[in-house]
Design a protein that fits this description.
By secondary structure, this protein is of the alpha/beta class. The chain folds into two domains: 73 residues, no CATH class; 92 residues, Alpha-Beta Complex (Lambda Exonuclease, Chain A). It is 47% helix and 22% strand. The longest helix is centred in the middle third of the chain and has 19 residues. The chain is globular. The mean pLDDT is 92.
Length: 215
Amino acid sequence: MSHISFSELKEWTVCPWKHKLKYIDKIKQFKGNEYTAFGTALHTICETIALHNDKEVFDWSSYNAEEHFESEFLINLQKLKSADPEFEFKPKLVSDMREQGKFLAQHILPGLQKSFGKFELVAVEESLYESIKDQNKNFKGFIDLVLHTPDDGKYHIIDWKSCSWGWDSRKKTEKMITYQLTLYKHFWCLKHNKNYNDVSTHFALLKRTAKKKPC
């Protein structure tokens, strides 16, 4: 059975011809840049911190989130260069991102704790592959983080987004952005037989240049 992801749906909405080239003709296009390397590295730190937020089972004294980010950022930059030897990095941007990423790495766990208080980890990078009603196709996706807050019994679907200073009101309400979490919520509830009212969704912004509330 074939499948469709949110990114594919978004691509088709923006430009059906580009969708054809990428998903049907399988023509490789964009290979990444400093921003994708930064975002991928930071996602890895978020995943590690979420997996090990319980101090009773994880020795935080032996983990350095800043060093971990630097290592992951370098790995992802090297992957870019391997994929495209002619790619030229912007040294100033890379230098700035190294410091911004290390700063953000310190604020991920405090940001989660401030937003959700006491929480339990449900899943990290949870895969979805659920049947779409009346269609011979599945919805495929990966949810960055799912938390449960025992005090109110709610489940929280979270998608990390790295950005510069934040999102303006237009982006916060843009349908093809908010649809991502709408679809994730629908198919996650379908997968786990949960009530929509028991699940909330969140974009977690990791702001490179923000002076306040970086996470």
